[in-house]
Design goal:
alpha+beta; single chain; two-stranded antiparallel sheet; two-stranded antiparallel ribbon; 71 residues; 1 helix; elongated
């Protein structure tokens, strides 16, 4: 039965999980939180204040070692 084979195939597909990582929840290095503009999600956005060297860093938990797509 094609329907049962299709259901079995779908059940074997990896589960795709979506997590939203807000920049204001990351570790900030040189950058600062701000909310002086509109159009951001969350409580604020992160503003790079120095010409170079500012960055943000997230710790992300994944179920297994490997390559993951960010979108």
């Amino acid at each position: 039965n094609l329907f049962l084979h299709l259901i079995s195939f779908i059940q074997d597909l990896p589960l795709i999980s979506t997590t939203i990582y807000e920049a204001e929840n990351a570790l900030l290095f040189g950058a600062v939180q701000s909310n002086i503009h509109t159009g951001f999600t969350g409580n604020s956005f992160v503003d790079y204040i120095n010409e170079t060297g500012d960055y943000i860093e997230w710790n992300v938990n994944v179920p297994a070692e490997g390559n993951y797509s960010l979108g």
